[in-house]
Every structure is written in C-alpha cells, then in structure tokens.
Design goal:
There is one protein chain. By secondary structure, this protein is of the alpha/beta class. The protein has two domains: 2-112 and 258-341, FAD/NAD(P)-binding domain (3-Layer(bba) Sandwich); 115-254, FAD/NAD(P)-binding domain, CATH 3.50.50. It is 27% helix and 25% strand. The chain has nine helices and 24 strands. Helix 5 (163-181) links the parallel strand 11 (155-159) and strand 12 (193-198). The radius of gyration is 22 Å and the shape is globular. Bound molecules: flavin-adenine dinucleotide. Residues 8-13, 39-42, 46, 48-49, 51-52, 78-79, 108-111, 128-129, 164, 167, 261, 263, 295-297, 310-313, 315 line the site of flavin-adenine dinucleotide (FAD).
C-alpha cells in the first residue's frame, strides 16, 4: 500500500485531502492500495476567517463529516518533525510519539499570529487567530459587566490596522455594546470605546488608495478612534501602553503579523520572509522529492507575477491542486498547474457593512450593506465544504478548477 500524508486540515489541508480523494476516485485507484491520511492537532476543520465574529458555533466542522464519506483517513495528532530524507513524519497523540512514513506528503500546516516580546502581551492580550482564541475573547467581552466598573471597562485597544485588525475592531464595537447593554446601565457606566492602532502611517495601508477612504468612513461612523505611527509597548490587565501613554482598556487584541508554521524549517529550501516554502505551479517544493505544500505554509506567483497571499482565497485552490497533483505524481499521470487571474478583497466593517475590491491595486466595486452581503456568502457558504455527507457532492467540490470571483451586489455589476 502507498500512503499520501496531508499535514493540516485547514483550508489548504482539507481541500488537498478532498482533491486527492477525487483524483484517486477518477483514476479508479483502490483506496486499499493508496491511503490518504490527514493529520491535524484537532479533529475538525476550522473556518478560521470567521474567528473575529461573535458567533463561532458554526465554524468547526468535524473531519469525520467530510472525510469519512470519501474514504480519507484522519487522525488527531500534533506534528513535531518532518524528515524528508527518511520520508517520515513524527507526531504526538496524547502522551505517545508516533512515526509515519509517506510516499508523498502535502505540508498544509498554515500560519500563526506573530507575537513579539511585548511585556504583558502573552498574559493579558487577546487575539482572533484560532477558534479557541476567538472564543476566549468573546467570553471575556461577555463577562465584562461582571467585572468592577471603572475606566476602560468597555474599552478595547486593537493593535494592527491590517485586514484582521480592522475586522476585529469593527466587530468589537457591536460586541462591547451588547456586553454593556446586558447589565443595568447607569450614568457611571463607562462608554464603549475602540481604539485601533498601527505603527504605519495609515490604517489599512495594504488596502490602497481606493479602499482607504471607505475604511476611514466606516471607522468614523462606528466611532472607532485610530492612532497611526503608534506602537504598543506594554499590556496590563486594565490598560494598553501606547508609546508611553496609558490607555485604560480591559481588552487588548493583538492582530499584527502572520508567520508560516515553524515546521517549514524542516524542509531544506530557502523560505520567504514569512517563513513560507516556495512551490511550483504544481504545488511541489522544488528540489525536495515527494514534498508538496499549500496554503499559508507555501508561496508561488499565483498568476505568474503576483505572489500568493496568506489567505483562504489562495489556500483553498492551492489545496485542490496539491491534492490532485500529489496523486497524479505518485501514479505517473500528468499534473495540472494552478494559475488564478483574479484577486479580490472583501473586508468586513462590522455593523457599517463591508468593502469589496477587485484586482491587485484593490479598486472598490461595492461597499456598505451590498458588500456585506458578499462577505456573508463567503464566510457562511462559499468557503465551507459540502456538509451533506454525499460522497459525489464532496468529491465534485474538490475538482482542480479555479472558482469565479465572489458575487458582486449593487449597481456597478450585477450578481454572478
Ligand atoms: C480573523 C481572521 C480573518 C481572516 N480573514 C480572511 C479573509 O477574509 N479572507 C482570506 O482569504 N483569508 C482570511 N484570513 C486568513 C486565512 O484564515 C488563512 O490564510 C487560512 O486559514 C490559511 O489556510 P491554511 O490551511 O494554510 O492554514 P490554517 O487554516 O491555519 O490551517 C492549518 C491547520 O494545520 C493545523 N496544524 C498546525 N500546526 C499543526 C501541527 N504541528 N500538528 C498538527 N496540526 C497542525 C491547524 O490545526 C490547522 O487546522 C483570516 C485569518 C484570520 C485569523
């Protein structure tokens, strides 16, 4: 029996596994001869992009629900080592260490939030990087009325004016208002206050000239204060210290910077500044036999020119193609190159709506409630695997094709 190991069951890993299962089925290969095995530390697939939202119940999908119907095996374990010479992966399950050999491996171990050594950040700070972190933040905010009343009770300082920080900050306005309103409000009850800080000169500096005024409009409408060219220097239980200024705040949320999974260091190739592995259009890591990579752990010029972005927008198709190609490669069939000729950004702006941009220079196509409609379709439908348990439907969803861009609502284009 031969074995394909898929490391990680996030957007890239889950879709690699399903893409591999589809290709195995298409080629008529008996699953008893070709095992596809997913290892993830969790027994579920996380819709990670939703971790800033208030309701996270629907964001974890049991792997059993999606992988069992298509004959993909999975186990819960923490990958600790990848040995490309021995073609072996070490993982920890409970107290036990295990080794598994592979004929092909797909590294889809994703990324994690980069946390610098700022005093108090690890002990007092919050984030929205994982399901657990998102739940912890939501619980903390819901519990604020139970804490002592005082300055900063309903103040949140969000650090990082990139996409995740903006989404976290705009959503926190509603979360804090709901928490404050859940207990009797008196004249002494502190107000809701959200401060978004960034060390760059702009909030949303990656979003470009077209989208930045829209973001500014939304932040202003939601009453979010911004501080630019500002740095968090310390976090206390009830304050954020920003460039020496003490801002009373019981909630400090760190949203600045992503790094690829450190296990990418096990692969003997130069990684980019984010720690990602280079891959060719077939998702192979050049020069390392039998190793494929996808998602946030990998990068390639996605359209031949622009580098892939750490995003589910790129991670899912990278996964589908990696899965297809890893099977094809193993059995000597032609592989398919990935090229995506469109790029969109749909940024949630909380109760104000959202902004939808097209292209690498991020030109606004819709905003407000219309863009929010697209965002909701993405977050709640488009990026979910089929949950019917229907084998054919699941396999078909994993075809190595590039989806069309998300629908646009509004007067610039009609929905597709
Ligand atoms: C709040 C937030 C909002 C976002 N919004 C957007 C958005 O609007 N649009 C967009 O395109 N992208 C967005 N992103 C980015 C997107 O979530 C990531 O790019 C995407 O999750 C990457 O997919 P992945 O499969 O490579 O990694 P992940 O989704 O991180 O999956 C990695 C998997 O590997 C597992 N794993 C990691 N280490 C180990 C180990 N040692 N052993 C076993 N298992 C391990 C993890 O449990 C996880 O299941 C957002 C991210 C966040 C946090």
């Amino acid at each position: 029996m031969q074995r394909i190991l898929i490391l990680g069951a996030g957007f890239a890993g889950l879709w690699s596994a399903l893409g591999a299962a589809r290709r195995r089925d298409e080629l008529g290969i008996d699953p008893a001869r070709l095992e596809i095995l997913v290892i993830d530390q969790n027994p579920w697939h996380s819709i990670r992009v939703r971790n800033y939202e208030s309701e996270l119940e629907q964001t974890r999908i049991p792997l059993t629900e999606v992988l069992d119907p298509v004959g993909v095996k999975h186990l819960a374990g923490l990958v600790t080592d990848i040995d490309v010479l021995k073609r072996e992966v070490a993982y920890q399950a409970g107290d036990q260490g295990h080794l598994l050999t592979y004929d092909r491996v797909v590294i889809a171990l994703g990324s994690h939030l980069f946390r610098p050594a700022i005093p108090g950040l690890r002990t007092c700070g919050f984030d929205v990087d994982t399901y657990e972190a998102g739940c912890r933040l939501n619980q903390h905010v819901a519990d604020l009325p139970k804490g002592p009343s005082g300055p900063g009770q309903y103040t949140a300082v969000v650090v990082g004016g990139g996409l995740t920080g903006i989404e976290a900050a705009t959503e926190l306005v509603s979360k804090l208002k709901q928490a404050r309103g859940s207990a009797p409000v008196t004249a002494e009850t502190p107000p809701v206050r959200v401060v978004l800080i960034d060390r760059n000169a702009w909030i949303g500096s990656d979003m470009g000239d077209s989208a930045r005024p829209v973001i500014a409009e939304a932040l202003q409408a939601l009453g979010i204060e911004t501080r630019v060219e500002a740095s968090l220097t310390a976090v206390e239980a009830d304050a954020a210290i920003v460039d020496g200024e003490r801002i009373p705040a019981r909630t400090v949320v760190w949203c600045a910077g992503m790094r690829a999974n450190p296990l990418t260091e096990d692969i003997p190739v130069p990684r980019d500044r984010l720690g990602r592995l280079p891959v060719d259009p077939f998702m192979r890591v050049p020069g390392v036999p039998a190793v494929f990579a996808a998602g946030d752990a990998a990068w390639l010029p996605i359209d031949g020119t622009h580098l892939s972005v750490m995003s589910c927008q790129h991670g899912r198709p990278m996964g589908r193609f990696a899965g297809n190609n890893v099977v094809s490669d193993l059995v000597g069939q032609p592989m398919l190159p990935l090229s995506i000729d469109w790029y969109t950004t749909i940024l949630d702006l909380g109760a104000w709506g959202a902004v939808y941009t097209e292209g690498w220079d991020r030109v606004v196509v819709t905003k407000g409630a219309e863009a929010k409609r697209t965002k909701e379709i993405i977050n709640r439908e488009r990026i979910y695997p089929p949950r019917s348990g229907n084998r054919r439907e699941i396999l078909d969803a994993a075809a190595p094709v590039v989806q069309k861009p998300p629908p646009v609502f509004g007067n610039l284009r009609t929905s597709s």
